[in-house]
Specification:
Length: about 280
């Protein structure tokens, strides 16, 4: 299915997410109420939006504390009057979760938004699974509970309006991030994945390698080594499911992993060649 308003510029930062119409207060249903879903919900509640949640894990007690209705059964969740359904599942479980939802129970045209760290995969799944009359917005808030704990100002929100008919509703959702000071970056899902493979996936890969090596802080750390320690710790804070999802569902990540292997081998061969030259000179 084709995009009705996808972005033509792949890497432009926009100061305004779209129309000049005043933002609406939204009713937002969150699918997957884990750490990241909770993190986003708190800001949405603070801004005055109504939120409700459904999840495979029973978060009813936590939702009660947040004054967020929790639906253990997805059918009444879908039948609730949601303006937006926000998908906060893991990358690996997205397809299974969406295909298990009886979407025919939706009572109204709804905007579906995902916040996954890959973009082509959720775009394709959403367009395949959703009825034609549902709007689709793909987003990637490039921050989380740790990096965004002191506010979202200047943190990037990457998005593509994949299929948007209700511009006011879409703009109102994007305004949640814009009003918090996020840097709004409109970019195609393909371009996002290409850039993220070289930045996010590569960082995760090197952090995982450092963790496998078991590097630890020493009494004579250089600044460069402290950067490596932080990279290792950052990778360890994320689940291996997230890391594997970044690889499996981003076609550009597989190329970057191969480039990493080849580049390591080139550096290794240059070192061995230099060592051989030095040994030859000493033996003369």
């Amino acid at each position: 299915m084709s995009s009705s308003s996808s972005s033509s510029s792949s890497s432009s930062s926009s100061s305004s997410s779209s129309s000049s119409l005043p933002p609406q207060t939204l009713k937002i249903g969150i699918v997957g109420f884990g750490t990241f879903g909770q993190f986003l919900a708190k800001t949405m509640i603070k801004q005055g939006h109504t939120t409700r949640a459904t999840s495979r894990t029973d978060y009813s007690q936590l939702c009660h504390q947040l004054d967020v209705p929790f639906f253990g059964d997805v059918i009444p969740f879908l039948e609730a009057d949601n303006d937006v359904i926000l998908i906060c599942t893991s990358i690996l479980s997205l397809s299974k979760v969406l295909n298990s939802m009886p979407l025919r129970r939706l009572k109204r045209h709804t905007l579906f938004v995902d916040v996954l760290s890959v973009k082509e995969h959720p775009r394709n799944v959403l367009l395949q699974v959703l009825p034609e009359n549902m709007d689709v917005l793909c987003t990637h808030p490039m921050f989380g509970p740790e990096s965004g704990k002191n506010g979202w100002k200047d943190l990037p929100l990457v998005y593509e309006k994949v299929r948007v008919r209700d511009e006011t509703r879409c703009s109102s959702f994007l305004h949640i991030f814009e009003s918090e000071g996020c840097r709004m970056v409109e970019m195609s899902c393909e371009e996002h994945d290409k850039v993220a493979a070289r930045s996010q996936f590569l960082s995760h890969s090197i952090g995982r390698i450092l963790a496998e090596m078991g590097i630890e802080s020493t009494s004579m750390n250089t600044k460069s080594f402290e950067t490596l320690i932080k990279l290792k710790e950052s990778a360890a804070n994320d689940s291996f499911d997230l890391f594997s999802g970044l690889f499996i569902h981003n076609r550009f990540a597989q190329l970057e992993l191969m480039n990493l292997e080849q580049s390591f081998e080139k550096v290794k061969q240059r070192l061995l060649k230099k060592m051989s030259e030095q040994q030859s000179h000493r033996s003369v």
